[in-house]
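Translate structure to sequence.
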């Protein structure tokens, strides 16, 4: 069996750009990137995707995967980081979202240096997707208009380079779907760390989006979540960790690693009453198809 971790932040082990570097060390265990990869391989996790969350972080991800076999990168700017990549100054007062329809783009655009560098990174042969990008209205660390502006830029970047997208959408589907649909069915991608409703799952499936499932599935307490995880079509199911976050049961309290994809796979095989080897083979082929690796 060969499993694929389609969303991790392993590259942030090697250099401190964000607090994720510290998260990797939170449990006091000394880790190296190559050690994490070796442990993953021993658990049958043979393929890994390092996901960028800012311009600098995306550059680090590309650097990290350069000489590592079966490890690829995405380049993306997380919605939390949006305001730092938009060239117009943001006001102190958060913008009020419209009552209906997607919010208008910010009065400005993505900074020229960001556009230029992301475009260059997208040409790298080990870059297989754009993201994680999207909308996060749970925290709104960046104004909604800036998030929308940045999301549209990244969708258009992906389409220009024929790359899929890794989407982060939290409490923002009412605005996300109109933006997605405005591109006329051209988008390929995955909803990373999906925990939303069956209604939004149905909309994703209708649009051919893959669904990323991680350790949250093992500790989600709401009964309806189990129903959602059971009903994801196998042809659209992807496995992920979001390492070093979202460690699955029974390893809560420890730092998540790519090896924990196997734990989530075992949980899903029981929940869905599917053979583990077949589930693993299907999800790995799904990842290979989406990311063209």
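Result:
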């Amino acid at each position: 069996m060969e499993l694929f971790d389609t969303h991790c932040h392993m590259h942030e082990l090697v250099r401190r750009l964000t607090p994720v570097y510290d998260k990797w060390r939170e449990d006091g265990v000394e880790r190296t990137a190559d050690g994490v990869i070796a442990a993953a391989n021993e658990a049958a996790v043979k393929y890994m995707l390092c996901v960028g969350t800012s311009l600098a972080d995306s550059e680090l991800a590309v650097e990290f995967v350069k000489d590592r076999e079966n490890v690829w990168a995405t380049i993306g700017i997380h919605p939390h980081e949006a305001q730092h990549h938009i060239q117009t100054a943001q006001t102190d007062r958060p913008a009020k979202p419209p009552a209906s329809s997607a919010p208008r783009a910010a009065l400005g655009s993505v900074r020229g240096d960001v556009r230029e560098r992301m475009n260059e990174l997208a040409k790298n042969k080990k870059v297989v997707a754009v993201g994680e990008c999207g909308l996060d209205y749970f925290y709104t660390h960046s104004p909604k208009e800036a998030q929308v502006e940045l999301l549209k830029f990244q969708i258009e970047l992906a389409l220009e380079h024929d790359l899929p997208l890794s989407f982060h959408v939290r409490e923002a589907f009412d605005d996300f779907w109109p933006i997605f649909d405005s591109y006329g069915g051209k988008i390929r991608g995955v909803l990373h760390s999906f925990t939303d409703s069956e209604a939004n799952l149905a909309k994703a499936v209708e649009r051919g989006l893959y669904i990323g499932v991680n350790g949250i599935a093992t500790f989600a307490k709401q009964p309806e979540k189990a129903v959602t995880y059971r009903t994801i079509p196998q042809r659209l199911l992807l496995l992920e960790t979001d390492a070093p976050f979202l460690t699955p049961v029974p390893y809560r309290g420890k730092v998540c690693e790519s090896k924990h994809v196997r734990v989530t796979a075992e949980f899903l095989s029981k929940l869905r009453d599917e053979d583990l080897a077949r589930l693993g083979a299907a999800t790995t082929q799904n990842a290979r198809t989406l990311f063209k690796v």
